[in-house]
Specification:
alpha+beta, Creatine Amidinohydrolase, Chain A, domain 1
């Protein structure tokens, strides 16, 4: 990072630490022990005819906080690195295996669960063992419990990439054969097949995905809090926008806000595209100087207690939309509002698109080829797990993001909210960010008041 950018980021982080000191809508509360025990019990009911094995993440990504493997955390709530999970459905037992730390590891990283005499009571596992016993324990258990092993054969997801995206990025990396290597998940499968050649391997992922796509009451409360935190982050980013400022200063205002209120970071690399960058859908350099007359398209969300948020807003740097910007924005907004209006259990993407078409016709607006529909799931991953082309069910959470992009005019507009499907309709979790044109312009007018 160059010196100018670093100074800008640090300035906004310091200033934002004093923004709204009385806000208390964000905190890390985590989940109850019973939440994870319920999940493990439900999974063992689904895969009752074998053993279940899952592995945790081994180390943090360079320069990042440690983030546990999503599937592993979903079932354990454990953030110790290098751990493994073995479940025996026939006995309703769940065993956690954690590395024995050296004194230096404990000093540098803090002690893991293996050193806590109360760990079993705190977590609800049948037993917690040294991970060096894992393979022997698995061998003994397979001999007694049958020859079927459920593990992750499908790709894992990450904080911001879906399972299918893992496959896409692996394929892109492998375009150069020097980068072509077996993933850690595939390496584990190979090693297990070598050790236990007579065992039948089955994929546990479909069972986990069916559970993860419907959010529990505890998850929904975390998502609601994250919606409020992330919404406030985007609002502060809007207020930090100035002609002559930089995209990274806008990013810093949002990041400082979500970190202040308990988020562990961004759910994906924040997108702050001004002017021509508003038309680059996954732009993340965020280093351009913002100019008067630009639009800023920001795509941002925090991650709180392993739940993500996904919000996009577009606003004019000047504080007022031009007539052309306003026209495009109004179309995108009406499409998004029509989608949200249609969401309820039992509705399909085709149903939503039909409703959008009817609304746009009634309002006399040309949708310019944008039909709306059902967006991507949101949860532990920004592009969360879940079946495509599925009818909506209560407890599903997803993002809807109609947008229009005209590079020749430097007009890129996207409006996105994260939505929870409820019993009778839907709840917009990110509703606290203004999106009506008059509300956006009113918020931006506060910048002028501050400078007087």
């Amino acid at each position: 990072m160059n010196k100018k950018r670093w100074h800008g980021v640090m300035l906004f982080l310091v200033l934002a630490a004093f923004i709204h000191p009385t806000l208390s809508f964000g905190q890390r509360t985590g989940y109850s022990k019973e939440e994870f025990m319920r999940r493990r019990a439900a999974l063992m009911e689904k895969a009752a005819d074998g053993l279940i094995v899952l592995f945790g993440a081994t180390s943090p990504l360079p320069g990042a906080h440690f983030h546990q493997d999503n599937d592993f955390y979903y079932l354990t709530g454990v953030e110790d690195s290098g751990a493994a999970l073995l479940m025996i459905p026939r006995m309703k037992h769940a065993y956690l295996f954690v590395p024995q730390q050296t004194p230096r590891e404990a000093m540098m990283e803090g002690q893991n669960l293996l050193t806590d005499p109360q760990a079993k009571e705190k977590t609800g596992f049948t037993e917690i063992h040294n991970v060096s016993f894992f393979e022997e324990y698995l061998g003994r258990t397979l001999a007694r419990a049958g020859s079927t092993l459920y593990l992750r054969l499908s790709p894992g997801d990450t904080l911001d990439n879906a399972r299918y995206e893992t496959l896409i990025f692996t394929a892109r990396r492998s375009r150069l054969h020097f980068n072509d290597q077996v993933s850690l998940d595939n390496h584990r499968v190979i090693k297990l097949r070598e050790r236990f050649p007579g065992v039948e391997f089955r994929d546990i992922v479909p069972f986990i995905d069916a559970m993860r796509v419907i959010k529990s009451a505890e998850e929904i409360e975390v998502l609601r809090r994250n919606g409020r935190i992330s919404a406030e982050g985007v609002k502060q980013a809007m207020l930090a926008t100035r002609p002559g400022g930089y995209e990274y200063q806008i990013e810093a205002a949002a990041m400082a806000t979500v970190l202040k209120h308990g988020a562990t970071g961004a759910a994906y690399p924040p997108i702050v595209g001004s002017g021509p960058n508003s038309c680059v859908l996954h732009y993340e350099k965020n280093d351009r100087q913002v100019e008067d007359g630009d639009l800023v398209l920001m795509d941002f969300g925090g991650v709180l207690d392993y739940m993500c948020m996904d919000i996009s807003r577009t606003w004019p740097v000047s504080g007022k939309f031009s007539p052309e910007q306003r026209e495009v924005y109004e179309i995108a907004l009406e499409i998004e509002k029509a989608c949200i209006e249609a969401y309820r259990p039992g509705v399909s993407s085709a149903d939503v698109q039909k409703h959008v078409a009817e609304v746009m016709k009634k309002k006399g607006l040309d949708p310019r080829g944008e039909r709306g529909g059902i967006g991507h799931y949101v949860g532990m991953c920004t592009h969360d797990v879940g079946p495509r082309a599925e009818k909506l069910q209560e407890g599903m959470v997803f993002a809807i993001e109609p947008g229009f992009y005209y590079p020749e005019k430097n007009i890129g507009i996207r409006i996105e909210d994260t939505v929870l499907i409820t019993k009778d309709g839907c709840e917009v979790l990110s509703k606290d960010v203004p999106k009506e044109i008059d509300e956006v312009e009113k918020l931006l007018s506060r910048r002028a008041m501050k400078t007087k």
